[in-house]
Design goal:
Layout: H1 18-35, E1 39-40, E2 46-48, H2 49-55, H3 61-66, E3 69-72, E4 82-86, H4 91-100, E5 110-119, E6 131-140, H5 150-167, E7 172-178, H6 182-199, H7 205-213, H8 227-231, H9 242-258, E8 263-264, E9 276-284, E10 292-298, H10 302-305, E11 313-319, H11 320-330, E12 341-345, H12 351-363, E13 368-370, H13 377-387, E14 390-394, H14 396-401, E15 403-408, E16 414-418, H15 419-427
Parallel strand pairs: 1-5, 7-8, 12-13, 12-14
Antiparallel strand pairs: 2-4, 3-4, 5-6, 6-11, 7-9, 9-10, 10-11, 14-15, 15-16
The protein binds histidyl-adenosine monophosphate.
Length: about 425
């Protein structure tokens, strides 16, 4: 016998009723984005590998270990074999599109959101998958649009607080930091390199490599034995110049004014190389080890690093899988699993009339399950009791008289309802 095929490790099927929760989250996100005047962008799921190497950074875990990359064979002489990668994140693709379509030339701030799958070859565990979904947004534009203003940072963070509230996610923490300008980071990297000389010999192999290539990435290390050493390293706050300090102070002042609570975390450098100045994560205690609901920050030099015009930007991405887990843990998410009514035709000859009745009720906005006339009445009742609040019996008499028999399962009460009033009756509380 051939082996049963299964979903690939780290990937999952999403099934009803959980998919209803995914749709609800996406609908709320789209609604909030619209109110903050964002438009949707959809970029390809795979891109040129160089895009991620140049933006996210060669030394990051994402690029060095986690990407799904392959050599895509040429199909014609006019094509070249190309290294392609399933997107591990969406910011690089959005900035590429911004440059490719000259979006900055409009002179308007570009406010773009996306919802879609991302791919990282990570060790799967609860809240961490190899295919996962992000809901994210980017605000980017030439400096003349005010894209560098700390108000943009604060507005994004305030929007996230609103979005999480509207999703019903309570108890989040906003962790905030500044990683400074490119020059500040260069200074910080020097300070780290100097501090690491004495201790790096006791650290893991990754840290030893990073101490040379990109010392900032040492702070991403998860090896427990390295943590006490990392705790002694300099913090980036001490390397910020006056302009970066003032920018950060303006972000926190605007958050204070808007009443958005935050905690400063000077170790928050984020696992991607493109960040400058403000970096943040929203965490939630209900998630366990993978506690980041979302992460983001400012990336003022990214467009130029990718060969584009000067276009400061800031954005974030929420892990949709983690939003779902959090809502399930909070038990506020009760997707509707029970239909309003089960229409049971009495005999196969009534199947067409039952379809017509179900159509009528569905058009009235009800959630309706359609039975099968060849079932005995007892079987229809058993099926209906599992999935609907009420059963509507449609026999020859009911069809002729236009008076339907409805049984409400929670009370056991059977009621005669004229067809014209049926939809309103079914929409009412199941107690009646
Ligand atoms: P990131 O921190 O790599 O940032 O990912 C953002 C969020 O995606 C995480 O906080 C987490 O909720 C979710 N996530 C990441 N990896 C996984 C995984 N393997 N399984 C499930 N969820 C995951 C970025 O991706 C940046 N592009 C965010 C950004 C946008 N920065 C500026 N603009």
């Amino acid at each position: 016998m051939s082996q049963t095929l299964k979903a690939v490790r780290g990937t999952r099927d999403l099934l009803p009723p959980e998919t209803a929760l995914w749709n609800r989250i996406e609908a709320i996100a789209r609604d909030v984005f619209a109110r903050y005047n964002f438009g949707e962008i959809r970029t390809p799921v795979f891109e040129d590998t160089a895009l991620f190497a140049r933006s996210v950074g060669e030394d990051t875990d994402i690029v060095s270990k986690e990407m799904y990359t392959w050599e895509d064979r040429a199909r014609a002489q006019s094509e070249k074999t190309q290294s392609l990668t399933l997107r591990p994140e969406n910011t690089a693709g959005v900035v590429r599109a911004y440059i490719e379509h000259g979006l900055g030339e409009s002179g308007q701030l570009q406010k773009l959101y996306y919802i879609g799958p991302q791919f990282r070859r990570e060790r799967p565990q609860k809240g961490r998958y190899r295919q996962f979904a992000q809901i994210g947004a980017e605000v980017i534009g030439p400096p003349s649009t005010g894209s560098e203003s700390p108000l943009r940072d604060a507005e994004i963070l305030e929007m996230l607080a609103t979005l999480l509230d509207e999703l019903g996610i309570t108890g989040w923490t906003l962790e905030l930091n500044s990683v400074g300008s490119a020059a500040d980071r260069a200074r910080y990297n020097d300070a780290l390199r100097a501090a690491l000389v004495a201790v790096v010999g006791q650290m893991c192999a990754d840290c030893q490599r990073r101490a040379v290539t990109n010392p900032l990435r040492v702070l991403d290390c998860k090896v427990p034995a390295d943590q006490p050493i990392i705790a002694t390293l300099p913090v980036i706050a001490d390397s910020l110049d006056e302009a970066s300090q003032a920018h950060f102070a303006a972000v926190t002042a605007a958050l204070d004014a808007a009443g958005v609570p935050y905690t400063l975390n000077h170790r928050l450098v984020r696992g991607l190389d493109y960040y400058t100045r403000t970096t943040f994560e929203f965490t939630h205690g209900g998630l366990g080890a993978q506690n980041a609901l979302l992460g983001g920050g400012r990336y003022d030099g990214l467009s130029e690093a990718m060969g584009g015009p000067k276009a400061p930007g800031i954005g974030f991405a929420m892990g949709e899988d983690r939003l779902v887990l959090t809502l399930q843990a909070l038990e506020t998410a009760q997707p509707q699993t029970v239909a309003d009514a089960f229409v049971a035709p009495l005999g196969e000859s009534l199947n067409p009339a039952a379809l017509a009745l179900a159509r009528e009720l569905r058009h009235a906005g009800l959630r309706v399950e359609l039975g099968e006339g060849s079932f005995r009445l007892k079987r229809s009742f058993e099926a209906a009791d599992k999935i609907a609040r009420r059963i509507v019996i449609l026999g020859e008499d009911e069809l002729q008289s236009g008076i339907l028999t409805v049984k409400t399962f929670s009370t056991g009460i059977q009621t005669k309802v004229p067809r014209a009033e049926l939809a309103a009756f079914l929409a009412g509380p199941a107690k009646g």
